[in-house]
Amino acid sequence: MKTKARDIKKAKILSGLEQAYKKMIAFKKEKNSEIVIIKDDKIVHVKPESVVLNELESEKKI
């Protein structure tokens, strides 16, 4: 029972994080401000137009 409840909470949290990323990208595009990410152990500033959600998802998994 605990495992099932934990899995449900985990799914809700991950869904919320995904929505937050989408909102952040939309906000950055609207304000035309750069997104700061870590890529290859370096801090990188990228334009919001060049960011694809899949890129952010791969960065989250590291």
Q: Biggest sheet, strands in spatial order?
A: 1-2
Calculate the terminal CA-CA distance, rounded to whole Å: 30 Å
Strand residue content: 15-25%
Number of strands: 2
Mean pLDDT, all residues? 85
Helix and strand content put the structural class at alpha+beta
Could you give the order of the helices and strands?
Answer: HEEH
Low-confidence spans: pLDDT under 50, at least 5 residues? Answer: none
Number of helices: 2
- Tell me about the largest β-sheet: 2 strands, antiparallel
For the CA atoms, what is the radius of gyration? Answer: 14 Å
Shape field: elongated
Amount of helix? 55-70%
Layout: helices, strands, pairs:
Layout: H1 2-31, E1 35-39, E2 42-46, H2 53-60
Antiparallel strand pairs: 1-2
Task: Describe the structure in your own words.
With 62 residues, the protein is an alpha+beta fold. The chain is built from two helices and two strands. It has helices at residues 2-31, 53-60; strands spanning 35-39, 42-46. The protein has a two-stranded antiparallel sheet. The model has no long low-confidence stretch (mean pLDDT 85).
What are the defining features of this structure?
alpha+beta; two-stranded antiparallel sheet; 2 helices; 2 strands; 61% helix; elongated
Compact overview of the structure:
The chain is of the alpha+beta class and 62 residues long.
